Write the structure tokens for this entry.
Amino acid sequence: MKITYIYHSGFLVESADAYYIFDYYRADFPVTDADKPVYVFVSHRHPDHYNPYVFEILREKKVRRMTGIISYDIKPRNYTSHMEGVEIIAAEPDKEYTLDNGALVRTLRSTDKGVAYVVTFDDGGVPRSVYHAGDLNDWVWEGEDDRVNKWMTGSYRRYLTAVEGMHFDAVMVPVDSRQGDDMFRGIEYLLEKVKADAVYPMHYWDKPEVIMQFAGKYPQYADIIRYTEDRMDRYSVIEDKNPREIVLLRGSGCVYKKCTFCDYYSDSGKDEDVNYMINRAALSQVTGKYGNIEIINSGSVFELDKRTIELIKKRCAECMIHTIHFEAHYLYNNRIEDLRREFADFELKMKLGLESFDYDFREKILHKGIPEKDPEVISRNFDEANFLFGIRGQTEDGMRKDIELGLANFERICINIMCANSTGIKPCKSVIKKFVRNIYPEYKDNERVDILINNTDFGVGD
Ligand code: SF4
């Protein structure tokens, strides 16, 4: 199951065989498999939760099977033309509905308009359960009549008895800063009553800082709270060559930032608390399946915060991981020995972003910042290297030479094919064609060579 925050209270939940969209308001979302059915849940009629244009977007994405689960407070006469031809289930409070894929929908009464949803579904053989509150919240307001606030809290708690003791893979809950000191009342009570593996605060009106405030005030939920705004895929498993788990963490940012082909150093942040929250969520998915993990960030491992480094050690030890792969720019060459000492309990494999042994190409075109020419010296502290192919000026001979030198000087190499991005360096179709036609077949089964035709082929990124 993959959960993607869309905007405000809008989420996309993808299971093995379906998409579930909750409270779409605005912004695009990654429905990429048009063959999967899409179930669109609307908790109530407020415009920040109900935008029927979502069905039009799904049509543009060529989705064929869509169902609307629309709260009863939106009357059929208010359905718009975007909903024509869509199968609609009018959701009443305190009811159960079975979707045509077998998913079970339970509704809760709301303290505002409409309903909240509990959706239980199969995810490739794994049972999943998610809770989306809509506007079901403890809406206590400063200055409001005491009796009204008490009634509100009583109602909220009464409505939540329907989920008391339940386990959820994920809960999506309002944390509305307009409530001031009372903004955590609803989420706090819910988390006392249910067991949740992941908590996504929502409805915070573009003030994601409330997530950090919540995490600071309730450290007991530190392991389950998610930084809702983070839309990256940060965990995957590479099953074929050199099987390993891979996590994409967030650091303070590449200190070098001069490579002319690179625009991905933007996945970084100066707020260490936010980075740590994101990294903790990513690392919590690690299982130790292969005892082998690759840990990357947009930059070098040395740009991860200290707490994240400690967490990596702890998590890898817990999961009986023996081998850790990190990446670093050459400018950190003289810190690698210390890092190996720090990770002495593990076998450390250091990967260098080399891109090419061709000095002129690497330094004059790519501005990689590696002043050394001798392959033996370059590889002295590194076990693995990245190469970048598919750029104008590269030849078949040059690419072959890089691979041969790479295999002679490193344990493993990873070939990245240049993808379109926002930099001035563009992928060159004829170079890529030469690689794919003449070189790829020779190395595709080589255990020491990873080949990424798209930069998300390892399953992480966006
Ligand atoms: S060192 Fe890595 S992250 Fe930094 S600019 Fe170069 S390719 Fe990008």
Remarks:
- The pocket of iron/sulfur cluster is lined by residues 254, 256-257, 259, 262, 265, 298-299, 329, 353 (CB under 6 Å).
